[in-house]
Every structure is written in structure tokens, then in C-alpha cells.
Write a structure and sequence with these properties.
75% of the residues lie in helices and 0% in strands. By secondary structure, it is mostly helical. It has one domain: MFS general substrate transporter like domains (Growth Hormone, Chain: A, Up-down Bundle). Helix 2 runs antiparallel to helix 7 and helix 2 packs antiparallel against helix 10. It is a multi-pass membrane protein.
Length: 470
């Protein structure tokens, strides 16, 4: 083992407050951009970019483009992971944030199908792919900034701060849509489940353009970071790899597979509760495939109330995972997700109170399963391939879970003649796969991130980690 670096070189150089803010603000912006698209994909894109068919076909087309970004995310994870493991976390995070912000800004100025035909649709797909590519590199870097700078015994807590960007981004993005919708009300007698003409004409562009302001703030915060001591030590000791991807696949394939399935239930729950639920909640009860029939404003306010629980329990999950272990915490939460999928329809059947309870329980479980991932996935890999390995696991899971979840959910919703009971069964089935992966995995809370060698390899996975708990 190389001699340890000198004391001054290893001393922490990022104040804790700067670490937490930098890891939080970047993912907040990234998830804001993603949520703004997700909301528009339900609310306006079917009519603006996919006209000519029935409403369900247009919605499915919009969701297909939404899911296309998930395919680009693993590519982004490989590209930014290579940069992050070779050049450092800070510069890579700046590039990913710029890419995401530019793509979102350009969506705000795109022509619609009525103005440019299928060229407009093609440009929307291109910008959506750029969003996915950027987000593929953002999450890992933010998680590493938090966890590699965390004090002993608080790594899962620190790892919840980049995760907290998901509920905050949702609240900011959908809150802005609500404000714009309130300022551009529909005409008297208009369908309250549909946006106004002014909103369809130009109001929907404002949230995309506003992203530029948020990106500028995020870049200023991240420009003040310095490289983590963990990466600096790895670089100075000559452990930087020429091809992190090859090393991750060759030496840590088991962790890549397990990490992917660790995230599966999280992704499916995430996108069912945010994207599918918005479509289901605001579809009229008299539609060919009936929904709950709430107005857009009413249902989004209900969702935002639920997302507050998402935020709170994301933070709650950190101390629990630090105390009891990531694996034990997630086994219990994933088991609860299995049950939640099976009681999905009975809850909704209780009326408005049941719908609110459905949203609160779903988003509470979302926080409890999403929070520990900020520490768990980085802990699976040594420093030399940590950005690449954690990013690939996180983003390949997005294809298996998030890319197809809204699309499958709409198809199952149709198959159930307007009842989403099959959607709940789908969620439970995916949670069972995650539960199996967790049972096969190892506990990682005592794995050191500092020496780059304590993370398990496939030749000695059991010996290099702490013993399996639970």
C-alpha cells in the first residue's frame, strides 16, 4: 500500500456548510429541470408536439420522449464518470450543470409542431436526450461531494442532501407552474383539468427559461468548491485509472448489478408518484380511460403536500441508515413498498382523503428509500472508479425503472379499464426484485471511502466488506 499522504494534504479543505449547499443546490436545479419537463410532458407537450391522434396516444408519445432521456443517462454516467474519476469531481459537476441548464433553456424557445412540424418534435427529443445525458453525470458527483467530505458516522446523513434536491426541485418546478397557471386562468366555463390558451401559447415556456437563473446560482456555489481530500489522495498516490469504466466492469461487476437493482423500486415508485399520478389525477372521470377528475391546480397542491413528506423523510432516513445500516433500513422500507403497491387502489377508493393518504404514504416511502442511496451506491466502489461505478448503477436502473414506468403505467391503467390496480401490482413486483438484491448484498456503512481499497471487489467481496447484517 502506498505511504499515506502528509497531514496538510489530507486535511479537509471544504467547510461542511459549503459541501452540503453545493451538493444540494446542484441536484435541486437538475431535478427542477427534469420535473419541469415531466410536468409539461403531461400538461402541454401532448398537444403542442404530438398532435393528430387521440389524447391517450399523444400522452404515450410524450411519455416515450420523457423515457428516452433515461437511455441517455447511462451514457452520461460513463462520460462524466470518466471525467470525474480522472480529472476530479468539481470540474465534472460544473460541466454537467451547464449541459443540463442549456438544454432546458433551449426547450423554452423551441417552435411547436404547428410552427415547424416534426422538426420541432425532433428538437424536443434532442434536448431531452441532452437533459438525460447531463443528469447521468450530475447525481454521482453530487453524492460523492457529500459523502467523501462527510465526518465519521454521518455519511448517510450527508448523502441525503443531494437526494433532498429531488423534492425541492419538484416543489419549485410545480410551484412555478401553479403560479403561472393562476396568472393565466382559463375562460369561464372552460374545462378545469386543461390549461388555458395563454398557457399553451407561451406560459409553459417560463419555467424552462427560469432555469438559467438557477443554473447561474448553482455555478457560483460550485465554483467555490475545492477537490475532495479523498480524490486528491487517490490522485497523488497514482491510483487514477486510464479507463475507469473497464476497471469498474472487470473488477466490480457484482456491485454494478446489485447497485442497479438496489435502485429499481426507488425509480419505479418515484416516477409513478410524480409523472403517472399527475396524469391519472387530472384525467376526467368521464374520459375513455377515466381518472380522478381533479383540476390541475387542486391535484398539484395535493402532490406538493405529499412531497413535503418526501423531503422530511429523506432527511430522516439518513440518521436511521447511519445507526442501523443501509441494508437493514432499505429491506424494511422496500418491504413496505411491496405492501403499498397492493393497497394502492383501496386507498384511492376512499375519496379525496384516501387520495391524499395515498400521496403522503407514497412520498414518505419515496424519501425513506431514496435518502440512503446517496451513501449506499458510492460505498460499493473504491475511489478510482467510484464516480463511474455509482453513476452506472444509478442510471442503468433509470432505464429499467424510470424510462418505462410511466409508459407501462398508462398501458396498465388502460388494461384495468380506468382502475390503476395493475399499476400497483407492477410497483410491488419491482419492489420484490429490489428486495432480493438487498438480501443478496452486503452492509456498507463501515466501509472506508478514504483508502480506495476497502470497497469490495468481485474476487473478494465478502472479505473486503463488513459482515452481512439482518
Amino acid at each position: 500500500m502506498p505511504a499515506p499522504a502528509s497531514g496538510p494534504a489530507r486535511a479537509p479543505v471544504n467547510p461542511r456548510s459549503r459541501v452540503l449547499v453545493a451538493s444540494l443546490i446542484g441536484t435541486t436545479i437538475e431535478f427542477y429541470d427534469f420535473y419541469v419537463y415531466a410536468t409539461a410532458a403531461v400538461l402541454v407537450f401532448p398537444s403542442l408536439f404530438f398532435p393528430g391522434g387521440d389524447p391517450t396516444t399523444a400522452l404515450l408519445s410524450s411519455f416515450a420522449v420523457f423515457g428516452a432521456a433515461m437511455v441517455a443517462r447511462p451514457i452520461g454516467a460513463i462520460f462524466f464518470g470518466h471525467l470525474g474519476d480522472r480529472l476530479g469531481r468539481k470540474r465534472t459537476l460544473v460541466v454537467s450543470l451547464l449541459t443540463m441548464g442549456l438544454a432546458t433553456l433551449l426547450i423554452g424557445v423551441l417552435p411547436t409542431y404547428a410552427q415547424a412540424g416534426w422538426i420541432a418534435t425532433a428538437l424536443l427529443v434532442l434536448m431531452r436526450l441532452a437533459q438525460g445525458f447531463a443528469l447521468g453525470g450530475e447525481w454521482s458527483g453530487a453524492a460523492l461531494v457529500a459523502t467523501e467530505n462527510a465526518p465519521r458516522g454521518k455519511r448517510a446523513l450527508y448523502g441525503t442532501f443531494p437526494q433532498l434536491g429531488a423534492p425541492l426541485g419538484f416543489i419549485i418546478g410545480n410551484g412555478l407552474f401553479l403560479v403561472i397557471g393562476a396568472l393565466l386562468p382559463s375562460a369561464t366555463g372552460a374545462d378545469p383539468t386543461q390549461p388555458s390558451d395563454a398557457f399553451l401559447s407561451w406560459g409553459w415556456r417560463i419555467p424552462f427559461l427560469f432555469s438559467a437563473v438557477m443554473v447561474a446560482i448553482g455555478l457560483w456555489v460550485r465554483s467555490r468548491l475545492v477537490e475532495s481530500a479523498v480524490f486528491a489522495k487517490n490522485r497523488d498516490s497514482g491510483k487514477v485509472r486510464k479507463l475507469p469504466l473497464a476497471d469498474a466492469v472487470r473488477g466490480h461487476w457484482r456491485q454494478l448489478i446489485l447497485g442497479t437493482f438496489f435502485m429499481l423500486a426507488t425509480y419505479v415508485l418515484f416516477y409513478l408518484m410524480t409523472t403517472f399520478s399527475l396524469s391519472y389525477g387530472r384525467t376526467a372521470k368521464t374520459a375513455a380511460v377515466p381518472g380522478l377528475g381533479y383540476s390541475y391546480t387542486t391535484f398539484v397542491l395535493m402532490m406538493i403536500f405529499g412531497v413535503l413528506f418526501f423531503a422530511v423523510f429523506t432527511l430522516v432516513s439518513g440518521p436511521l441508515a447511519d445507526k442501523y445500516g443501509r441494508r437493514t433500513t432499505l429491506i424494511l422500507v422496500t418491504s413496505a413498498i411491496v405492501v403499498f403497491g397492493l393497497v394502492w387502489v383501496p386507498l384511492i377508493g376512499l375519496g379525496t382523503l384516501g387520495v391524499v393518504l395515498w400521496l403522503v404514504l407514497g412520498f414518505t416511502l419515496m424519501g425513506m428509500t431514496f435518502g440512503p442511496m446517496g451513501a449506499l451506491l458510492p460505498e460499493l466502489f473504491p475511489t478510482s472508479v467510484r464516480y463511474t461505478g455509482s453513476g452506472i448503477s444509478y442510471n442503468v436502473s433509470s432505464i429499467l425503472g424510470a424510462a418505462v414506468a410511466p409508459f407501462i403505467a398508462v398501458a396498465l391503467w388502460q388494461a384495468g379499464d380506468g382502475s390503476p390496480w395493475l399499476v400497483g401490482v407492477y410497483l410491488s413486483a419491482m419492489a420484490v426484485l429490489t428486495l432480493v438484491a438487498l438480501l443478496l448484498g452486503d452492509e456498507t456503512k463501515d466501509v472506508s471511502l478514504d483508502d480506495g481499497e476497502a470497497a469490495p471487489t468481485d474476487e473478494g467481496a465478502r472479505a473486503a466488506t463488513t459482515s452481512v447484517t439482518g
